[in-house]
Specification:
The protein has about 110 residues and is mostly helical. It folds into 2 domains: about 40 residues, no CATH class; about 60 residues. It contains 4 helices and 3 strands. The longest helix has 18 residues. The chain is globular. The two termini are about 15 Å apart. The relative contact order is 0.12.
């Protein structure tokens, strides 16, 4: 899935497997195409390695399929709290980057 953000309005569009945002000109309106900027979806990268992103099914995908929506959102929020709570004692900036990654996923879910 690809994610595009309209820099003028802040609207977010998920395009699935489309090659470009131009494929969605009827969705966003031709006049808005010049404002569209692609952003990484949280599932397309990992903070701190590639040990999850290299798997055929990523743990996030499995949990999202097996858990209820509320359970999955709670898990994501819990990890934001975990990494923020421990960053000064354990992982420093790296833990803040992980917290941001989970928070970005939360923003995609809500």
């Amino acid at each position: 899935m690809r994610k595009f953000v309209n820099t003028k309005t802040g609207d977010v569009y998920h395009t699935g497997d489309a090659e470009s945002i131009e494929d969605y000109d009827t969705l966003v309106g031709v006049e808005n195409l010049k404002y569209m900027v692609e952003e990484k979806c949280t599932s397309s990268y990992q903070v701190g390695g590639e040990h999850y992103t290299n798997k055929a099914v990523q743990p996030w995908q499995a949990m999202e399929a097996w858990m209820t929506e509320d359970q999955f959102k709670g898990f994501m929020l819990g990890n934001v709290i975990k990494y923020i709570a421990r960053f000064q004692d354990k992982g420093g900036k790296h833990d803040l980057e992980k917290a941001k990654h989970y928070l970005d996923k939360c923003l995609e879910l809500w």
